[in-house]
Amino acid sequence: DTAVVWFRRDLRVRDQPTFLAARERAGRALGLFVLDPTLLEPAGPRRTAFLYRCLRALDDDLGGRLLVVKGDPADVVPKIAKALGAGSVHVAADFGPYGRQRDEAVEKALGDVEFVRSGSPYVTEPGSITKSDGDPYKVFTPFSREWAKRIGDATPADTDAKTLSWMDPSDKDGGPRAVKVPDDPKLDAELPEAGEKAAREQWEAFVDEHLTDYDEMRDRPDRPGTSRMSVHLKYGTVHPRTLLADARGNGKGPTSFRNEICFRDFYAHVLWWFPRSARENFDPKFASMKLDTGKDAQQRFARWQEGRTGYPAIDAAMRQLSGEAWMHNRMRMAVASFLVKDLHLPWWWGATHFMNLLVDGDLASNQHGWQWAAGTGTDAAPYFRVFNPVTQGERFDPQGDYVRRWVPELAGIEGKKVHQPWKADEPPTDYPEPMVDHKAERQEALDRFNAL
Ligand code: FAD
């Protein structure tokens, strides 16, 4: 018998529960990836290129035996299963709003062919952690206590490419046509190395060099103190179980790291319970908040996007996003606060810009990260806590190295003075003055909030 292993957000061979489930049912397996236009179109060139690179790496790991086809999964997956006479199709469950519907449609179209979900991209399946009365958690801390009780069960699955005997897709008779993984789209950013091996190497280097001090260094955008696992978690070139297995113990570093992995699960749970929160204020009170959306607002938005606000830390971060397709977490919070509370723009403008440029762009983490910063989300930052764009820079980039790396116009200003170039003896002429007065805009934000 043949089993189809349909890869989606799990582009790896290690720690793969789907392989174990397939092996129980069949002697050989077909590895499949479906290029689904519904998901590819909004992904943008950066995530598309990264995905293609992951697929080439996975194909190598399967000895060149990954079948890639194009089309609507509800159409092509059943056709492939039929062409092979397969008894089962194996996936890691998808909990996103689109993925859920797609999988239901595929399952229905498969008829008698078993559709087997094993595991998910998360430590805990979205929806599986509730309060004792069955209601969803809307606050992180109590959720995280329940989550912590479960992670002992999250043992990595012992698998590799040899767990299954992979059939040569060219032996398949009929069914949808195989395509080559397309060439990368044209890129304007430096992407991280893709694929499972790259994920593992990056992770091992982080564990060796930075995990112990993670709690202390995770807020420093000028240092390489975070794991950079977000993109690998997004594409499943590593599973969070594997990371948790290495980040054990009561040390401050591992404890703090586990907390961040828990945030990722939490936001996936929130999206599962409240799919509307990807598009609308989680807290409906904000529906009547006064926001700027006119022509002038669009011009302000463009300056934020380009990294020409005149606030060096904000500009460095926006340029890091353009150049590297990634931004440090501390700076994601700072630029989001600036967009919402200094520029009075809708958070979803910023969230969409992030989704267009981030290689780790992920609906659950991004939309809820934005809602947190905007004060509209689940246990969000209280609205009146407004980040000061200068102080954020001075605190978390204390020598100014991060700013000078990304804003070459300011490279001549030494030390932390770089955060207030307007105070320099000779302010650089090619760098803008602050586009808004933070103190005044902070008051404006509070006034609008108080008017609710
Ligand atoms: P590390 O500090 O090494 O953290 C380890 C892992 O924990 C991360 O890889 C990530 O999976 C998870 N994590 C850490 N912080 C958070 C968080 N606040 N929320 C959810 N998960 C977290 N993360 C994304 O993966 N995709 C996004 O599109 C995204 N958009 C964001 C938008 C805003 C406005 C904010 C404030 C945060 C956003 N985050 C997003 C969360 C966080 O900024 C990134 O996960 C982190 O910067 C990735 O770098 P890292 O892997 O080195 O993180």
Notes on the structure:
The protein is mainly α and 452 residues long. The chain has 3 domains: 1-120, Rossmann fold, CATH 3.40.50.620; 121-156 and 195-273, Serine Threonine Protein Phosphatase 5, Tetratricopeptide repeat (Alpha Horseshoe), CATH 1.25.40; 284-450, DNA Cyclobutane Dipyrimidine Photolyase, subunit A, domain 3 (Orthogonal Bundle), CATH 1.10.579. Helix content is 47%, strand content 6%. It has 18 helices and 5 strands. It has helices at residues 17-25, 37-61, 73-84, 97-110, 140-150, 196-209, 214-217, 230-235, 240-246, 252-273, 295-306, 312-324, 329-342, 347-357, 363-374, 389-396, 401-406, 438-450, and strands spanning 2-7, 28-35, 66-70, 88-91, 114-117. A 5-stranded parallel sheet has the order 3-2-1-4-5, sandwiched between helices. Helix 1 links the parallel strand 1 (2-7) and strand 2. Helix 5 (140-150) packs across helix 10 and helix 13 (329-342) packs across helix 15. The longest helix is centred in the N-terminal third of the chain and has 25 residues, at 37-61. It is globular. The termini are far apart. The model has no long low-confidence stretch (mean pLDDT 96). The structure holds flavin-adenine dinucleotide (FAD). Flavin-adenine dinucleotide binds at residues 218, 226-230, 233-234, 260-261, 263-264, 267, 329, 332-333, 336, 354, 358, 360-362, 365-366, 369-370, 373.
